[in-house]
Design brief:
Helices cover 57% and strands 0% of the residues. It is mainly alpha-helical and 164 residues long. Residues 98-157 form the Winged helix-turn helix domain.
């Protein structure tokens, strides 16, 4: 099963699934067999049998949610707030004056300088998406762009090249 960008189940979805397992525990306590529980709760028989085995060994508490799966991110909530502010300030404030674009490589260096932790670019991309940032395609214009020279090139130089 594929999950959205955040990965895994949300807290609401985990709670809903936990409630279903608790309903199953009540049914087991009332004497219902796993195939009946599976039919009533509209879950697979395999799940019902697994829940029944866990319930027999540890009671209702054995069916509690174990929380989100996977390793916890090293990106602390406080770091995320700092990173959001730093990104809002722009790259020039942090030493990148040649152009005004944030790249994953630059953001990775920024985080490493501040928190002494390296994130891979795909991991950093996921973190930024979770923070609400999206990929932006910048308008490719230099900060030092001279509109007069651009106009001259377009009208004179390009006109000569195009005639050939």
């Amino acid at each position: 099963m594929r999950y959205p960008d955040g990965g895994g189940l949300t807290a609401v979805e985990r709670a809903r699934r936990e409630r279903v397992r608790f309903q199953a525990a009540e049914m087991f306590a009332a004497g219902m067999r796993p195939p009946q529980v599976a039919r009533v709760l509209r879950v697979s028989r395999k799940s019902a049998y697994a829940w029944h085995a866990a319930w027999r060994q540890g009671g209702r508490d054995a069916l509690r949610s174990k929380g989100p799966s996977g390793v916890a991110s090293r990106m602390q909530p406080g770091w995320r707030a700092w990173l959001a502010r730093a990104l809002e300030q722009g790259p020039a404030v942090h030493g990148w004056r040649e152009d005004q674009r944030w790249t994953l490589a630059r953001i990775s260096v920024l985080v490493a300088r501040r928190f002494h932790v390296r994130f891979s670019q795909p991991q950093l991309s996921r973190i930024l998406r979770q923070m609400g940032f999206s990929v932006q395609v910048p308008v490719h214009r230099a900060a030092e762009r001279d509109e007069e020279q651009v106009r001259v090139w377009r009208e004179e130089t390009w006109a000569r090249v195009e005639r050939r």
